[in-house]
Amino acid sequence: MSNDVMIRVPAAVRDRLAVLAESRGVSIRALVEEYVEADFTDEERRERAERAREYMAEHFGVRVTDEESAAMAAKLRDAAARQESSAA
Questions:
Q1: 4, 24, 52, 69 — which has fewest CB within 10 A?
Q2: What does pLDDT average to over the chain?
Q3: Are 64 and 53 in contact (CB under 8 A)?
């Protein structure tokens, strides 16, 4: 017995998924799995950030403050925005 489920989406969304999947050489199923695995909830992001901080403190003796983390996040957002605007 399969654990698959059907998700109803508008035809235009299905067609777009098909184009994206074909361009990557994967199935729509694999594409959706890739998207789901690549995105996180805000809570998951916080948990991952906390684990990374703990790892850095334990293995490298580096303690990253909330302020430092926020500053780095802002720099990354700015860099991504610059890259996106230069690609356009």
A1: 4
A2: 93
A3: yes
